[in-house]
Every structure is written in C-alpha cells, then in structure tokens.
Automatic annotation (TrEMBL):
<keyword id="KW-0808">Transferase</keyword>
<dbReference type="InterPro" id="IPR000182">
    <property type="entry name" value="GNAT_dom"/>
</dbReference>
<dbReference type="InterPro" id="IPR016181">
    <property type="entry name" value="Acyl_CoA_acyltransferase"/>
</dbReference>
<protein>
    <submittedName>
        <fullName>Ribosomal protein S18 acetylase RimI-like enzyme</fullName>
    </submittedName>
</protein>
<dbReference type="InterPro" id="IPR050769">
    <property type="entry name" value="NAT_camello-type"/>
</dbReference>
<dbReference type="Pfam" id="PF00583">
    <property type="entry name" value="Acetyltransf_1"/>
</dbReference>
<feature type="domain" description="N-acetyltransferase">
    <location>
        <begin position="1"/>
        <end position="134"/>
    </location>
</feature>
Length: 135
C-alpha cells in the first residue's frame, strides 16, 4: 500500500475511482484527496500496477469514514479490499470505521465484520446502507 499524493492522477487510479463514483466526478474527488488535510488516498500495488484503492476521511478520536473503495474487476474476490481496510485501521490506529454504501457492497462490508443498517431509499429507487466496524 502506498499513500497517493501526486498532483496528476494515474490512469489506473482514475479507472478505480470511477468504479466508486461517476466518471465525471473523479477529477474533483481526486483533487479533494490531494488538497484536504483530513483526507487520505491509498493505492494497493501489484508490481507497477495500481489494482485497488481506498480513500478515507479522518474524523478524529481514532475514527474514519471510507469514502471510496475499489478493486480492479480481474482482482476482486482475492481479499484485497479487506487488506486495505486492515491497513488503514493499523496505520491510523482506528477504533471505529464507517462507510455508506449501496446494496452491491453490503455483503463485502458484512464479511469484513461491519454492522449494517439500512438508511432506506436515499435517492429514488436507490437504497443506501451505513456500515460500522468497531475495532
């Protein structure tokens, strides 16, 4: 894992972030990570390739919110997402990690030990979930 702080976004990182948000928002989101003190963006490397990323917002009192988490499709199901969560937990000595996600990622967070609560239909036809892990 490496913290990403460079001014220009790597093409693989751009693709990863587009899995976690819309393609139109990637550049702005990336700049927020680069320019905001409480935000951190980490890349999971395999040789020279960025195959996963996790972006967090540190909230004080050993807490953070996972803002973005993505793994390249051909590397999913290999434990990379959970390794990234363990990494940020250890590096930042976190006691609480939370995320808000959609139905597609709920099982992943549940397998990682997060408690899941439905937030209901946040947008028309789209149910969102709060995921909380107390370490």
């Amino acid at each position: 894992m490496v913290e990403i702080k460079v001014e220009h976004i790597h093409p693989q990182l751009r693709e990863l972030l587009s899995f976690a948000t819309s393609k139109q928002k990637v550049e702005g989101i990336y700049q927020t990570y680069i320019q905001t003190d409480g935000r951190r963006l980490y890349g999971f490397m395999l040789e020279e390739d960025v195959i996963g990323c996790i972006g967090i917002e540190l909230l004080g009192q050993n807490r953070c919110e996972i803002k973005h988490l993505a793994v390249m499709p051909n590397h999913r199901g290999k434990g990379i997402g959970s390794k990234m969560i363990r990494y940020i937990k250890d590096v930042h000595a976190l006691s609480v990690i939370f995320a808000v996600t959609d139905i597609e990622a709920v099982n992943f967070y549940e397998k990682c030990g997060f408690k899941i609560t439905s937030l209901g239909e946040k947008y028309p036809g789209i149910v969102r979930f709060r995921c909380i892990l107390k370490v």
